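Hello everyone,

My group is preparing for a crystallization screen and wants a predicted model to guide construct design. The compound we'll soak is zinc ion. Before spending weeks at the bench, it would help to have a computed complex in hand. I've included the protein sequence and the ligand's SMILES below. Output in structure-token form would be ideal because that's what our pipeline reads.
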Amino acid sequence: MSERAAPFHCPYCGDEDLRPNEQGHGAWECAACSRAFQLKFLGLLAPATSSNATGGEQT
Ligand SMILES: [Zn+2]
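Reply:
Good plan to model first. Here are the tokens for the complex, ready for your pipeline.
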């Protein structure tokens, strides 16, 4: 039903005292360090390719 991803630890201080923030979906705030952050789903990872193995890097 919901697509909420609940973080278990604050990414900044590692505390577990997280609570939803009213900023919007995926927004959380840490009561320990008073930081607010937002989780964002970027998309599924593409299968690993060997494009980074050889040269040819564009500048
Ligand atoms: Zn924190």
